[in-house]
Amino acid sequence: MSSTPHRPAGGRHHVVIIGAGFGGLFAAKRFKDENVSVTIVDRTNHHLFQPLLYQVATGILSEGEIAPAIRQILADQDNVRVVKGEVRNVDLKAQTVTADLGGKDAVLEFDSLIMAAGAGQSYFGNEQFAEFAPGMKSVDDALEIRARLTGAFERAEITEDPAERERLLTFVVVGAGPTGVELAGQLAEMSHRTLRDEFREIDTENTRILLVDGGSQVLAPFGKRLGRKAARRLEDLGVEIVLNSLVTDVNKQGVRFKNMKTGEETFVPSYAKIWSAGVAASPLGKHVAEQAGVEVDRAGRVPVNDDLTLGEYRNVFIIGDMMSKDRLPGVAQVAMQGGQYAAKTIIDEATNGTSPEARAPFSYFDKGSMAIVSRFSAVVKMNKAEVSGFVGWVMWLILHLLYMVGFRNRAVAAFSWGLNSVSRRRWQLVATRQQLHARNALRKLREMEDKEGIRSIEVRDNLRFGEGRDTRAISD
């Protein structure tokens, strides 16, 4: 570990941003040409347009189109430095952040800190489900799911066992929020449109797709009317919607769920299972909340002041999925507006000497919510206005193009969406065995290393905050 914390030369106000998602990236871009130094820390080298991950998983877009490199995005901002590494410690009193890349530490001293580390998948205490039902929170997740989906069809093509073929062609999506609805819709289109006539021994139109949720409707935040419209469209596509049902077990063979009204349990044999039922804020939130004497909520989100700061630490901002304030939803707009607000507040203090007491409170402008159900069909809720069908689909396309980073990515995505609307082909269905097996292989390797008290570079580079880095390192 470095003994002397680093800060940029020049003596300017130093801002450290943890996370290069929507909140962190929009904060960093707001500092352009300002008299501050910025260091942005992220465990990956890319900014992820997370709402479009399901399109990578189902072969519409490539990962590069939704995950441009952070350094390229910020290349023209001379006052911004990028550090790739997993944050291992935040010391609020010492005003330092320690980031690790494969066992090599960087200790950064800050004057202001913006925490935008986002959220991960929540299995509601059943973490063992993750082995068989990956979530949809990273590029790795999307590529693994793509490999599982395409692998199911390939295995079904060669099996001679009718029961096994039925299991392989049964897909279960857990969670009927926007991600689950979008994924189920695209799975139906893949099966009934894209892959039609591509196999010789199976009929992909016989695929069974289940969307399971513990609530009483799909897309609950959108209201009953839009929820019903989305459900009807999914059912038209052949999706089976199972509501008021909690998943009680996920294993290699399938999924078991319990009807909360009748108590009846059902087991559905399935090869490919996908989890989109809940989120949990980064554990970094609890880490800093404990230092500030603040208690996080059940999802690990940190209650913040009106200026998005943490307790008495008026130089520490919590934004996006990590924060809890006024029941704001965990959507990109909240993160973007929070990042811009935090950056503007820091600029006012660093350049104009504005005191924390003079800060205007954060005010969120709700631009609405959107979810695409299928080709030519989406639902949009903007305050009291509700739009669905083709018009909603066009609105969804325009808004998502607007918030994609980079002209090339917008152009390629627009072309891909246009091509997909007129052709049943998808050109991003490449899958590899490494994509399919890497996550669980690393998990097994970690379990073996835990017993030996060692850490290989492969495991160390994939450990998240709080996941047992402190064992003997072996050669890189």
Short key terms for the protein model shown above:
6-stranded mixed beta sheet; FAD/NAD(P)-binding domain; alpha/beta; FAD/NAD-bd_sf; flavoprotein; 34% helix; 25 strands; 476 residues; 4-stranded parallel beta sheet; globular; NDH-2; NADH:ubiquinone reductase (non-electrogenic)
What features would you describe in this structure?
The chain has 476 residues and is α/β, with parallel strands linked by helices. Among the domains are: 13-43 and 85-121 and 280-358, FAD/NAD(P)-binding domain (3-Layer(bba) Sandwich); 127-276 and 368-396, 3-Layer(bba) Sandwich (FAD/NAD(P)-binding domain). 34% of the residues lie in helices and 24% in strands. The chain contains 14 helices and 25 strands. The protein has helices spanning 22-30, 53-57, 63-66, 70-73, 139-158, 162-168, 178-194, 224-236, 284-292, 332-352, 389-403, 407-422, 433-452, 457-460; strands at residues 13-18, 36-42, 80-84, 86-91, 96-101, 104-109, 112-115, 119-121, 170-174, 208-212, 239-242, 245-250, 254-259, 265-269, 272-275, 279-281, 302-303, 309-310, 313-318, 323-324, 369-374, 377-382, 385-388, 454-455, 472-473. It has a six-stranded mixed β-sheet. A four-stranded parallel β-sheet has the order 11-10-9-15. Helix 1 (22-30) runs parallel beside helix 10 (332-352) and helix 5 (139-158) runs antiparallel to helix 6. The radius of gyration is 23 Å and the shape is globular.
